[in-house]
Amino acid sequence: MSGRYTELKRECYEANMQLPQLDLVVYTFGNVSAVDRKEAVFAIKPSGIPYEQLKPEDIVIVDYENRRVEGAMRPSSDTKTHAFLYREWSDIGGICHTHSTYAVSWAQAQMDIPIFGTTHADHNTSDIPCAAPMADSLVAGDYEHMTGHQILDCFEQKKISYKEVEMVLIGNHGPFTWGKDPAKAVYNSRVLEEIARMAYLTLQINPNAPRLKPALIKKHYDRKHGKEAYYGQEG
Amino acid sequence: MSGRYTELKRECYEANMQLPQLDLVVYTFGNVSAVDRKEAVFAIKPSGIPYEQLKPEDIVIVDYENRRVEGAMRPSSDTKTHAFLYREWSDIGGICHTHSTYAVSWAQAQMDIPIFGTTHADHNTSDIPCAAPMADSLVAGDYEHMTGHQILDCFEQKKISYKEVEMVLIGNHGPFTWGKDPAKAVYNSRVLEEIARMAYLTLQINPNAPRLKPALIKKHYDRKHGKEAYYGQEG
Amino acid sequence: MSGRYTELKRECYEANMQLPQLDLVVYTFGNVSAVDRKEAVFAIKPSGIPYEQLKPEDIVIVDYENRRVEGAMRPSSDTKTHAFLYREWSDIGGICHTHSTYAVSWAQAQMDIPIFGTTHADHNTSDIPCAAPMADSLVAGDYEHMTGHQILDCFEQKKISYKEVEMVLIGNHGPFTWGKDPAKAVYNSRVLEEIARMAYLTLQINPNAPRLKPALIKKHYDRKHGKEAYYGQEG
Amino acid sequence: MSGRYTELKRECYEANMQLPQLDLVVYTFGNVSAVDRKEAVFAIKPSGIPYEQLKPEDIVIVDYENRRVEGAMRPSSDTKTHAFLYREWSDIGGICHTHSTYAVSWAQAQMDIPIFGTTHADHNTSDIPCAAPMADSLVAGDYEHMTGHQILDCFEQKKISYKEVEMVLIGNHGPFTWGKDPAKAVYNSRVLEEIARMAYLTLQINPNAPRLKPALIKKHYDRKHGKEAYYGQEG
User: Fold this and answer.
1) CA distance linking residue B25 with residue B16, whole number of Å
2) Which of A21, B174, C170, D225 has minimal CB crowding within 10 Å?
3) CB D143 within 8 A of CB D66
4) What angle do CA B52, B57, B61 make, to 5 degrees?
């Protein structure tokens, strides 16, 4: 494989192949994309190809207007949602969509995932929002494009920053996550699945479990992301 | 191994061997069959043989009247159910039966699996029906033959097409699935298990979770199966 | 390894090694024994040895009065329960004890596992009984011996035959299973764990789920164990 | 690798590498330390390094005042909690912290794990305590140091001995466990996760499940740890 987007395709391919290894997908139920900001294109999984058959050269290159730039295959049916988010959120480098079990179950329940503990607070400063299902008129129109709108509207209404909360549930559907690169987007999908599972179990054990206190939310965010962060290695 | 049905046996064998790999069976708790419409026979797993011991040549060939056509072993105890469905539904090419955990649990609860999200709607246009348990008089008679009737009656009463919903739960027992070939029937069993698990979790999180809106059911079905389907690759 | 009980030890060892492979134990939480009726001794796992370290020659040979006949190690702390059951139930050839998750949870809930479906009925003709916790005076005495009594009393009070139901829960503790040989005892432990999990899920989905009808219990038992059984291969 | 603390680092490394193998951590969500009482230092995992990248020489050596004695990397962000416990509890040789699913869920529910059965009683003489969340003023201060205080205060208030109960939940956060060496601390984390899962399931099956009787708690503790202990091998 050679060509202009070889490295971008490989990065996208490797992030996609993490999904079955992390038990986040069965069959074709997911997709990851990787953006090249300079070229204003992104690489994305082709539609309906099982992970065990996927090869780096199958990855499709698409621009922000959803036009195929390179690749023989049809891109993921969710491509327009990815394009929309890359256009709107200029700081993200990768997007991941799965149908992972616990995240989907919260999305089907149409509920935000409450912030119950430090596992959640190490990664987000608020509940993980669940975007309300789309109006029928929009479903009938440019559905996947409108899914991008749905995410944007949800973050605006709830006054959440996509830089502090890198994950969302689409009501009735499932999760989208993002990050500085596709590997981080996949990491966020795995973390979201664990947070979703823990929050489910917490409520089964104690239906009145309280949310984490603001002081602890701030502490755990600052510990990892604040000016004097001391989690991880320097540099 | 050579002979008239070698290819059919191998297809049936490979579909059966998927079941333990997909965590859908333990020991002998499942069976897959593959039909040859031209020859009017089907290949099916022998009864009571653990998957780790199964060999392609063990597969039994049976006609629609349940007569063994080829093979030294006794066919699956569920053979008459398979025969009945092949006779009644001329468009199906494979059938799969398992005792997978979540699908069986819904069958034991004697409840249809509600259509809560797009994972479900990508594969079915309605709730997954649970056929009511059989009358005692029928149990005492030709039980496995009547199980076929039970499925057919259920689809007729609920006005569901077996082409749109390729899965059913038998009350108190477990799931049967089918498809254009045995691999698709197995795929449907795996998808059903995931849908059953997600629906269970959804109701635990929100006992009042609403069904998916008709507009979204239609959209997701059309996206994959409609005239202008755009999911997957062309051709 | 050579000697009088070499074959018995190997059979016992192999059955024990199935437990971690079937995800029924962590660390040392289980034990299997195998009886030699002619010699009136049984082979059992040594106490407190992790499965990954266990070797065939570590297996201990004990008689029905709990006296060590061969072997350098101390036998399982549950040895007296095994001895009691071998003495009382002359038709069994192997016994298995685990702390498998779902079976233990029902034992801790101190509830019989209701017969909800055919997976259960293919193996048992009634609910799986949970023996009530022991009186304090007995706990303080010969505890593991009394555990055998506890099982026997439970089956007598509930009028269940140990030949039709090869599994029991000890309230607050966990499951014991048995069978014609140690491999069947282990098989029954794996089946019990699955039945326990399905029954738990069934009640979560539908707290009013009805028990299986007597006609279906009889049908599934006869299909596998009756005079005209047609499940499995002949001979 | 050579040097004064080579053996201590290796012991710490091996205990850390058990965590992903036992399914107790994803990514970097855990850490194990090993103490050298003579040298008054302990070895601990570096902060934010994924397990698949961890090497023995990455392990950091720290003294009880949290000063780095050897190693190029920054030690775990939980180091001060470990140091505090080593200072206060002179009999422990290793400490383990994870975000394992069921233990975290009980911690988020802010509830002690009730002693429901012998699996629990084989390892602890009481409920597993959940320390109440920290006051906001302490969170803002020396947080990880105060987490050590939080554990100590919890054990003092509930009059529990850290020698009989080698595990604790930090409310809203997750579990810490300890033991005579780091391998035992990891063992306790695995056992805690199983106890937490069983207790959760027990309450789902029977919300009124009774605690284990004192006579059985005593019997199972003495059987393993009493003067006349007969569990395991002698010597």
Assistant:
1) 10
2) A21
3) no
4) 115
Residue A6 has pLDDT above 80, yes or no: yes
Nearest to A170 by CA among A89, A228, A112: A112
Q: How far is A173 from chain B (nearest CA, A)?
A: 5
B142 CB-contact burial (10 Å; exposed 0-12 / middle 13-18 / buried 19+): middle
What ipTM did this prediction achieve? Answer: 0.95
Interface test with B, best of A31, A49, A105 (most B CBs within 10 A): A105
**Could you tell me how many residues make up chain C?**
235
Known catalytic membership, residue C102: no
Catalytic residue among B58, B63, B122, B222: B122
Instruction: Specify which residues C61 forms β-bridges with.
Output: C43, C70
**Alpha-carbon distance A24 to nearest alpha carbon in chain B (angstroms):** 12
Are the Cβ atoms of B110 and C209 closer than 8 angstroms? yes
Residue A2 DSSP one-character state:
-
CA distance B111 to A35: 45
Average pLDDT, chain C: 95
DSSP-derived pairing of the beta strands A174-179 and A94-98: antiparallel
> Where do we find the tokens 């105060």?
D146
The better pLDDT of the pair A39, A229 is held by A39
C-alpha C15/C-alpha D191 separation (Å) is 23
For residue D191, the chain C residues in CB contact (below 8 A) are 26-27
Among A205, D117, B103, D105, residue whose Cα is nearest residue C101: D117
SS3 for chain C is CCCCCHHHHHHHHHHHHHHHHCCCCCCCCEEEEEEECCCCEEEECECCCCHHHCCHHHCEEEECCCCEEECCCCECCCHHHHHHHHHHCCCCCEEEEECCHHHHHHHHHCCCECCCCHHHHCCCCCCECEECCCCHHHHHCCHHHHHHHHHHHHHHHCCCCCCCCCEEEECCCEEEEEECCHHHHHHHHHHHHHHHHHHHHHHHHCCCCCCCCHHHHHHHHHHHHCCCCCCCCCC
Q: Report chain D residues whose CB lies below 8 A from the CB of A205.
A: 105-106, 109, 111, 200, 203
What is the full DSSP assignment across B136-175?
HHHHHSSHHHHHHHHHHHHHHHTT--TTT--EEEETTTEE
> A197 pLDDT exceeds 80?
yes
CA–CA separation, A12 vs A24, rounded Å? 16
Q: How far is it, in rounded angstroms, from Cα D51 to Cα D186?
A: 15
> Chain D contacts of C46, Cβ < 8 Å?
233
The Cα–Cα gap between A77 and B230 comes to: 7
What residues in B contact A46, CB-CB < 8 Å?
Answer: 233
Alpha helices in chain B (DSSP H): 6-21, 79-88, 101-109, 118-121, 136-140, 143-157, 182-205, 214-225
Q: Which helix (H) or strand (E) holds B179?
A: strand B174-179
Domains and CATH numbers, chain A: 6-225 (3.40.225.10)
Residue A225, number of CB atoms within 10 A of its CB: 14
- pLDDT 10s digits, C15-44: 999 999 999 999 989 999 999 999 999 999
B231 is known as an active-site residue? yes
Q: Which residue do the tokens 């099956």 mark?
A: D205
Give the C:D interface size as CB pairs under 8 Å. 85
Mean pLDDT of C78-83: 97
Q: How close A115 gets to chain B, by Cα (Å)?
A: 15
Q: List residues of D whose CB lies inside 8 A of any A CB.
A: 26-27, 29, 46-49, 73-74, 77, 99, 101-102, 104-111, 133-134, 136, 139-140, 143, 172-174, 200, 203-204
Could you report the per-residue pLDDT of A20-61, keeping only the tens digit for each? 999 999 998 999 999 999 999 999 999 999 999 999 999 999
Written as six digits, the tokens of C232 are 């499995």
Closest Cα of chain A to D208: distance in Å?
Answer: 13
